[in-house]
């Protein structure tokens, strides 16, 4: 059934998966915590299985910003969904690659024989990223706490300044690179400059992303991978709600640069959206499939991670995917479909440009000539994070899940799901059905 090429000691299968709708952050905390989102996805996923949650050997979850009371959020998810006290769980964090990292970890445990059945995925409630006290406020609070007498308290109170209340926005800090002192958007500006990508090209690409997601929603294409969810007030969420079906290049052209004012090219309109969402898949060995009579969505053949200059982190998919193909002795023409996470339009277009640049491919990828152009008709066929959103801990798992369904409905065999990662990394997964 499957091409045997793999670096896993034994085959790793994906038997099922679900995700929540991706809900756009709208300036205040969203209705779901990260564990709530995970629970909604996992509860619906488990309702259609032939085994109980206690059958899992482990639960692995990618999450970048769990709330303060969800430190090892994976264990909380496992216990809430009924895995019981005996099923271990742990959380992984590789920035934007966290959801893919969870799947990779699960696959390695199955391949090694340590596990037979693993729940893996990612969850993120970016709208609930915390506001933090700045250092001056923290020091003042420490002084206040250590002041024991009324006089010492009064003296400390007189030292207080309103400026101490200025918060640190954790989301902004988290989406910045402290090594190169650039925000993720500024790294996208660098990629655009490197390859001469224009603002119009970025906006055109972004409109296409919205159009493709709109078409997928109208056609019911995503129904198999999304489970509707309900909040505590009974409100119903059934689709990715950040999509703008009326998006046009003319409308996007009116937006001002966001990351490099006033002369930059990257705007809120040609960037991924700040979003809440969760996605999980069930990975299994051949033994588990036989034991529980499970269907098979596909096989995870391999995952490759690569690193690069953090200031051009958006090119991570180029490094990881090229290495993956080399490792598997495959050409790009043997890949039927591609999913490249749309952190920014500039970043995806930059990857396409890099692959088509002979000098870049020789210098950085070790190729003898240009990798070549990807067929845009087989790339992000149902839109990407510009329209869907990019909950950072979730996206890697969403890409894998979606690729499985893309291959299935098109009668195709092989796909790559890949993404850039803040800090200068890239991850790529090869999937076959």
Question: What spatial form do the alpha-carbon principal axes imply?
Answer: globular
Report on the biggest sheet: 10 strands, mixed
SS strand fraction:
15-25%
Tally the helices: what do you get?
15
Uncertain runs are none
* CATH hierarchy, class of the domain at 182-221 and 302-432: Alpha Beta
Percent in helix: 25-40%
From the alpha-carbon coordinates, what is the Rg to the nearest angstrom? 22 Å
Q: Kindly state the mean pLDDT as a whole number?
A: 95
Per the CATH scheme, the topology name of the domain at 182-221 and 302-432 is: Peroxisomal Thiolase, Chain A, domain 1
Distance between the termini: 8 Å
What is the CATH architecture descriptor of the domain at 182-221 and 302-432?
Answer: 3-Layer(aba) Sandwich
The number of distinct β-strands equals 16
Structural class: alpha+beta
- In CATH terms, the superfamily of the domain at 182-221 and 302-432 is Thiolase/Chalcone synthase
């Amino acid at each position: 059934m499957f091409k045997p090429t793999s670096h896993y000691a034994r085959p790793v299968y994906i038997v099922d998966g679900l995700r929540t709708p991706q809900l756009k952050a709208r300036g205040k905390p969203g209705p779901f915590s990260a564990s709530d989102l995970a629970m909604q996805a996992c509860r619906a996923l488990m309702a259609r299985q032939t085994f109980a949650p206690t059958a899992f050997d482990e639960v692995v979850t990618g999450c970048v910003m769990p709330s303060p009371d969800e430190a090892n959020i994976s264990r909380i998810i496992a216990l809430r969904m009924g895995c019981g006290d005996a099923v271990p769980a742990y959380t992984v964090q590789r920035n934007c690659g966290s959801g893919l990292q969870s799947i990779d970890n699960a696959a390695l445990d199955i391949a090694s024989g340590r596990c037979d059945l693993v729940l893996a995925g990612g969850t993120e409630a970016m709208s609930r990223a915390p506001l933090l006290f700045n250092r001056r406020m923290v020091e003042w609070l420490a002084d206040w706490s250590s002041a024991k007498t009324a006089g010492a308290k009064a003296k400390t109170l007189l030292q207080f300044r309103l400026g101490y209340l200025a918060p640190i926005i954790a989301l902004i800090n988290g989406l910045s690179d402290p090594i190169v002192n650039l925000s993720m958007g500024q790294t996208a500006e660098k990629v655009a400059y490197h390859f001469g990508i224009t603002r119009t090209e970025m906006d055109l690409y972004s409109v296409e992303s919205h159009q493709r997601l709109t078409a997928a929603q109208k056609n019911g294409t995503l129904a198999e991978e999304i489970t509707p969810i309900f909040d505590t007030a009974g409100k119903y969420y059934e689709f990715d709600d950040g999509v703008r079906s009326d998006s046009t290049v003319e409308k996007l052209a009116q937006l001002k640069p966001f990351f490099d004012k006033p002369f930059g090219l990257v705007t809120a309109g040609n960037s991924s959206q700040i979003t809440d969402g969760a996605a999980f898949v069930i990975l299994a060995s051949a033994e588990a499939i036989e034991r529980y009579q499970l269907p098979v969505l596909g096989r995870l053949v391999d995952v490759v991670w690569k690193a690069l200059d953090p200031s051009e982190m958006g090119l991570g998919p180029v490094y990881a995917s090229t290495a993956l193909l080399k490792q598997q002795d495959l050409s790009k023409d043997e890949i039927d479909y591609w999913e490249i996470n749309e952190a920014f339009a500039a970043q995806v277009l930059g990857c396409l440009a890099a692959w088509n640049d002979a000098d870049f491919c020789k210098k950085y990828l070790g190729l003898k000539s240009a990798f070549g152009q990807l067929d845009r008709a087989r790339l992000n066929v149902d839109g990407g994070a510009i329209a869907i959103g990019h909950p950072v801990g979730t996206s890697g798992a969403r890409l894998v899940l979606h690729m499985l369904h893309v291959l299935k409905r098109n009668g195709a065999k092989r796909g790559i799901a890949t993404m850039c990662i803040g800090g200068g990394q890239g991850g790529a997964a090869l999937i076959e059905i």
